[in-house]
Request: fold
Amino acid sequence: MFHVGHLNVLKKAKEHCEFLIVGVSTDECVYKNKNKNPIIPYDERKEIVKAIKYVDSVVPQFDKNKFSAWEKYRFDAMFVGDDWKGTRLFDEVEKELKQVGVDVVYFKYTPGISSTKLLSKIRNE
Reply:
């Protein structure tokens, strides 16, 4: 679920690049990784992200394979929230992308907000 923390990452990312490509997880990718269907369907999430002024292009994210994404889009840097820093997934992503000269740039996680917290609040009200 899109929230201000996501917006903050997009804004900061755009400050560090000329052309910002944003991957939006497909419904299948969300289900595979979280074992649940997204509340907002992919096509609607894609349109929301596409409408954000910092975003130049939106592409489908079919899986978590960031090297495969690099092979397709040839980006120079990858931007992500620092809640991913030090995870097994992103330790591997950093190693793979470093081999092709791509930096993984982490931005400070927006405190107090997450999709999980939003969903919990909605369910409790």
In short: The CA atoms of residues 23 and 59 lie 5 Å apart.
